[in-house]
Amino acid sequence: MSTRDRMVDAAAEVMRARGLAHATTKEIARAAGFSEAALYKHFRDKTELFLAVLAERTPGELTVLLAGLRSRAGTDTVRQHLTDIARAALAFYGHTFPMAASLFAEPSLFAAHRAALRAQDAGPHRVRDAVADYLAAEQNLGRVPASANVRAASALLIGACFQQAFLGHFVEDIEDADSFAESLADTVIAGIG
């Protein structure tokens, strides 16, 4: 395993246990068995390391799915694609929520994180945008009605996934993820006509 991979693994473990705001690069480097200076040879800052954890160490492969999503327009069914997106988003948000939640409690760290995301043209809005772009492509093919507001449909789908993941950390008895993903897809399809 490469030095970088060991650092990403350690970061995922430390960030899950302590939250992003309380995980330090020194602690992450130590958990990986390296110096903090070695960590900075691979990552500019903690935000870049967090983005690597999100892209490389989260379940559901949401990032991979979203990267090729627009090219899936016209294949399978819109319902199937929305179900796949919902399943991946539920897994992703369920896994990452504990890491990111602490960020909101530290205003200066949160501001720095937002600035770093902006500089890298990244952020949570990219999920919503990718789904909206996919739905727009389906709209251009006539598989989604021209009257449908694809940005609103995307926001409803992704927002519901985020809320369900959030609730999953507080309520033990929530709906099964697969059933919920299918219900969300059906509801969005019904809403856009």
UniProtKB/TrEMBL annotation:
DNA-binding residues: 24-43
Gene Ontology terms for molecular function: DNA-binding transcription factor activity; transcription cis-regulatory region binding
InterPro entries in the record: Homeodomain-like_sf, HTH-type_TetR-like_transc_reg, HTH_TetR, Tet_transcr_reg_TetR-rel_C_sf
Keyword Glycoprotein tagged: no
Keywords assigned: DNA-binding, Transcription, Transcription regulation
Pfam families per the UniProt record, alphabetical: TetR_N
SUPFAM superfamilies assigned: Homeodomain-like, Tetracyclin repressor-like, C-terminal domain
PROSITE patterns, sorted: HTH_TETR_2
UniProt keyword annotation of Transcription regulation present: yes
Residues in HTH tetR-type domain copies: 1-61
Domain of life according to the entry: Bacteria
Name listed for the protein in its UniProt record: AcrR family transcriptional regulator
Source species: Kutzneria buriramensis
